[in-house]
Amino acid sequence: MAVLAAHDLRKFYGGEEVVAGVNFGIASGECFGLLGPNGAGKTTTLRLCLGLTDPDGGSVELMQRPVPGEARPARARVGVVPQMDNLDPDFTVSENLLVYGRYFGLSERAIRERIPELLGFAGLTARARSRIQTLSGGMKRRLTLARALINDPDLLFMDEPTTGLDPQARHLIWERLKQLLAGGKTIVLTTHFMEEAERLCARLAIMDRGRFITEGSPRELILRHIEPHVIEVHGDGVAHWADGDAVRLASRLEKSGDTVFCYAADPAPLLASLANQGELRYLHRPANLEDVFLKLTGRELRD
Amino acid sequence: MHIFAPPSMSLRFVPVWRRNLLVWRKLAIPSILGNLADPLIYVLGLGYGLGSMLPEVGGVPYIAFLAAGMVCSSTMNSATFEAMYSAFSRMHVQRTWDAIMNAPLDLDDVVLAELAWAASKSVLSGVAILAVVWLLGLSGSVLSLWVIALLPLIGLTFGALALAVTAMARSYDFFMYYFTLLITPMNLLCGVFFPVEQLPATFQAIAAFLPLTHAVAIARPLLLGQIPPDAVLHALVLLAYAAAGFYAATVLFRRRLLK
Questions:
Q1: How many angstroms separate the CA of residue A81 from the nearest CA in chain B?
Q2: A249: containing domain
Q3: Residue A204, domain member (yes or no)
Q4: What would the pLDDT profile of B213-227 be if each residue is shown by its tens digit?
Q5: How far apart are CA B207 and CA B216, in angstroms?
Q6: pLDDT digits (tens, 9 = 90+) for B96-124
């Protein structure tokens, strides 16, 4: 059963089509990742799905309700973790949850019963009465996640949930998201972190310039778009080596700054060649989602 | 939703209003004292200082005349500050509105909550000054109780106008224009410190269009124990400003935030 579906979704800003005919359906219990460089249209797509802005074309159904027409009741079954922290700085940790629960029309009693459970989930039980300013970045994110769960939603939207967090904090968030998925929640997340997408998402789409350019499981995308082996080479004389053996032995080459990325189905000939190149340093690794992402969206900066 | 559609009015605004109340409660005492200090200095300083040099103004001691003006003026100021600086912080700096709109509430609910809250807070400061006016014995009439009913209307009027300004603001600096071009002139032209009739005809004509004039025209007679002439007309002018300001604010906020 689809909890979210978009058909030919379009949005223009100042003559530019930032969402350019997007189609997708998300089934209950799934974790769907939306990847893309800055400005690809990810956040706008989420805003359209939540009914926070009207589409210029196409349609959205959220929790079986047409959006934006019935966006409000649909959002009653949804939780959102926004990209920018917007916790209430004037309140304590528990007050943030209490006030947010009221926005959903929940009874005071129901909210107060739920708060200890959510604080436990977020690892913030000891900080219930702390002010927001005293929390670390990771704690704030966890509280934002707890806040998004106040209405026990079926579907969670997460816009770059771990951006700006240290590895410990990031792993804790991933751990909690897996727990939620195991509990049957559906998650839609946007991210820049390929590792995050590979760990969490059963299915993902890469978005660029307002379009979905590919879609599938992380494994499928790697198989479909990229050679299985990558050798990253750098050091003095790498340009010379790249123009010689590398071009001949790799199925594809990419240069980025002083590093040459060699993609190949069979890495053995390249490794043999590199063994004779004393000045070159290299790293041999399996291809990953980041390679797919960079191949499809290019290596140039997006600001 | 069409951006020019009439604002949707529903009780969904209440939890957002309660949010602002909860913040206020944490700072209630300093907030009330802060709101009280400024008008009180005016009433006492000008009222006794300047008042001692004046014969009666409008048939009463100057301090009693001034008190009515200050009740209106500080209610206006309180609603204006709340709907500009505080609402702008919540919308733009803290992104509180974004968080609220991810819940099953719409922008219209948030704007209505901000208006209701600005009006509520201004009523609190209006009542505080009114209490001082009573304590000082500047108004002994039972009719003055009716001013309490007028305060929400003043709060709604100036809260709504200020929200429309907030909807256009890119930074806090923008609010200076509104203060310089409207709030300060209103404080000086609308009969707060002296009767409008003292002004040249042109300024009197301008004053007749400004909402604060109409608030003062109701409040002053009530505080002095008279039934205000044309009270309904003045109230309708305030209501019209409130409605126009609220509609403009709603449309401008939609244009700004729902694009």
A1: 9
A2: 227-286
A3: yes
A4: 999 999 999 999 999
A5: 11
A6: 999 999 999 999 999 999 999 999 999 99
